[in-house]
Specification:
Strand order of the largest sheet of chain A: 1-11-10-9-12-13
Strand content of chain A: 15-25%
Shape of chain A: globular
Number of helices of chain A: 17
Largest interface: A-B, 125 and 125 residues
Helix content of chain A: 40-55%
CATH superfamily of the largest domain in chain A: Nitrogenase molybdenum iron protein domain
Mean pLDDT of chain A: 95
Oligomer: homodimer
CATH architecture of the largest domain in chain A: 3-Layer(aba) Sandwich
Distance between the termini of chain A: 84 Å
Low-confidence stretches of chain A: none
CATH topology of the largest domain in chain A: Rossmann fold
Largest sheet of chain A: 6 strands, parallel
Radius of gyration of chain A: 26 Å
Number of domains of chain A: 3
Structural class of chain A: alpha/beta
Chain lengths: 431, 431
């Protein structure tokens, strides 16, 4: 842990600096795989799966028999847990639906805005040691509510050529029809270009390692949108004497176990809390199966003490954490003072894990300071806003002269002319 | 004009292919300018302004005296036109405000979503022959409604070192405090890195030539968001015998005058309309000051006849036009059948110019097929959605066991532990 006492504003940037990844040697691999998938489609997918995932796949698509088997394999308790998470996530994202916005801006000028679904979306779900079936729910439920007509899910197969049953159960629960055993760069390439088996999509969502991250970034240069730019996961807790040190330590560790580059920060206006959390961290760390990973992240973690609540809040806002836990007496102050955070967890009984799995909020969030300009995944991530207008004869007569003047001043005579022709016709018909 | 008669579905992609720009030689210039601005700040801006805009600027910032002079210079009629446009754009974007979404997903589990403004935004407004003061309104009004606290506007100076008074009047009207005489790549670099005069922003909006487009794209690799990827402007009109051929021709020409690479398409289920529009096009073209530009775009324009309404609609949807005018008897069919369009103009008295200037809808729209996954600029472009949750003791007892099971199955023991600690404490205190 690295401890700081009332650091000055000029120090904040360097204290809270995030690790910057360099991808130079990965980039050539990404381009090579994309080109191969563009040229040879499914055949390339199978070859890369053999090379990278060390398994031979004849049929890339998961068939209904495998879905049924998965459902039968999974414990009843886990299925019920997934069902509970499904219900909460569904409720919260369903409530995000908005109705069409309609305004008659001038008499005879009707303007409205409607949201329509992105028709084709693709999800990348990491496999391997941590099969992220929770991410299936976080992406597929809002897509289902939005009404996306084609949903493609790609996930790398195990060495036995299978997919974790919880991933399949979650996908089936969300009505996903097209599930493929393909991972890594080749999965992103397949959803970008399309292959014999896999449909080309308009937007790709989901987490992944540095290869997947760079592949998604590369896909954006080929006309595909992505959910958001990625970076290591991060958690900032602000606490005072109201906070429970053991709970705070457990939250910091839940972040630390993600990876050695996870960002773990405690900001406090209470020195005692920093000492107590440090003791708890050491104690709890020893019990964790992933303690080697967590230890590295904790070694880089920051504990920052501030005398002033306002300084604490300003420092947090300058950082803009992905996950932000508030365990303070005056929680409203720390809610209102912040502009930049992905998801906010309030009070001693609101662990970050709740939002990761089952409370209902989405866990796909901006990291790396991108909270300053990006939203986390939400219902709108699967919709586009379109505008419409219908103008009556009276309407164009009311706003037409203003349009003519403005178009002329911008030097766009044909824009003016489109109005003038209509106004002249209306004048002629009146006379 | 290129005419097609009932083209088969397999031909649509090649008929409606958009021009693809290659930027290879521009890229090295972009990197050079960004590096210079990063290294030398304002000094670099002044040097590039001298080099590219051929004027020497001592003070990059537009001072209040210049704003007052602009207001006095502008004709009363044009000011009134801008004011009318302001009011309509304001009304339409103000109506897009939503209230906070709050759901108790499980008893004791309160989740809510709030939108907060992106604090720092930057606008690029092209200058030169066509000073796009209308774009100032389209960007600054929603930023004002969203509550963005810092708004920076960059626009290239004329050879006399001035800015068009209508740009200044529109900016003042929208309350923009920070206006700078700097254009091109160097303006985008300044808003990306910040200089002595110009604040670094989180998101950059606005149109520009290929240099500006590539600079914005490059900025996204440096942690800045942009409004959307850019491409040449485009218009598709669908018409039948209900359409007025002279009006349709005037709309197609208003698109064609933007540039020789503008996309101009007429889809019709009425052969007579195609013939009549072709005659009108030739006639109106001769009258235009920008006829040389428009001629080139019209030479590449497509006129597509379909027997079937459904084929027409499917073809339009596959293209996904930025601007989409419907002049058909059964307009509702052509509204409902389309998923992909930026802004839709309905009826004979709704020219595209109306939405470009004064009806109230935004004119910053996705082109190049990006209507399939991007929205046009709207109020939400200036806001981020953040989620919040507060869970009571009862709430964590209700959903905690599900979280424990899911975290364990994903191999994330510390995530489970953060819940277990809390549940154990509650159990202990109860006993």
């Amino acid at each position: 842990m690295q401890n700081y006492n009332n650091p000055s504003r000029s120090q904040w940037e360097s204290i809270l600096k995030r690790p910057t990844a360099t991808f130079d040697d990965v980039e050539s691999v990404v381009v090579e795989v994309f080109n191969a998938v563009k040229a040879s489609g499914d055949q390339a997918l199978k070859e890369y799966t053999k090379k990278f995932d060390r398994t031979e796949i004849d049929d890339l698509e998961v068939r209904s028999q495998e879905l049924t088997t998965a459902e039968n394999t999974l414990s009843k308790d886990l299925k019920q847990a997934i069902d509970l998470a499904y219900d909460n996530i569904y409720k919260f994202h369903k409530a995000q639906q908005t109705s069409r916005v309609e305004v008659e801006t001038t008499s005879g000028v009707d303007c409205w805005q409607e949201k329509r679904p992105i028709q084709k979306v693709g999800f990348y779900i990491p496999g391997g040691s941590a099969p992220l079936f929770s991410t299936v729910l976080m992406l597929a439920i809002p897509a289902q509510i939005a009404g996306c007509s084609q949903v493609v899910l790609c996930t790398p197969p195990t060495k036995e050529g299978t997919v974790h049953p919880a991933v399949l159960y979650a996908a089936k629960r969300c009505g996903i029809q097209n599930i493929y055993k393909v991972g890594g760069i080749q999965a992103i390439a397949a959803m970008t270009y399309g292959t014999e088996s896999i449909t080309k999509v308009y937007k790709i969502f989901g987490p992944g390692n540095q290869f997947v991250t760079l592949a998604k970034q590369y896909a954006t240069t080929l006309g595909v949108a992505i959910d958001m730019p990625a970076g290591p996961s991060e958690l900032l807790v602000v606490g005072d004497s109201f906070a429970n040190p053991a709970f705070v330590a457990s939250d910091l560790l839940s972040q630390a176990e993600h990876g050695p580059d996870s960002q773990v920060i405690l900001v406090s206006t209470d020195k005692k809390l920093i000492d107590e959390v440090s003791v708890e961290l050491e104690k709890q760390l020893e019990e964790l199966p992933r303690k080697e990973i967590a230890k590295k992240a904790i070694a880089n973690s920051k504990m920052i003490y501030f005398d002033s609540k306002q300084d604490a809040a300003d420092c947090i806002d300058a950082y803009g954490p992905e996950h932000y836990i508030i365990c303070c007496e005056d929680e409203q102050f720390y809610i209102d003072a912040i502009h930049n955070a992905g998801s906010v967890f309030i009070g001693n009984y609101t662990p970050e894990s709740a939002g990761d799995y089952a409370s209902g909020t989405n866990h796909t969030l901006p990291t790396n300071g991108y909270t300053k300009q990006y939203s986390g995944v939400n219902l709108d991530s699967f919709l586009k806003q379109m505008t419409f207008q219908k103008i009556s004869k009276k309407g164009i007569q009311a706003i037409g002269p203003a349009i003519e003047l403005m178009a002329e001043e911008e030097g766009l005579q044909a824009h003016k002319n489109a109005v003038t022709l209509r106004l002249n016709e209306l004048k002629a018909n009146k006379e």
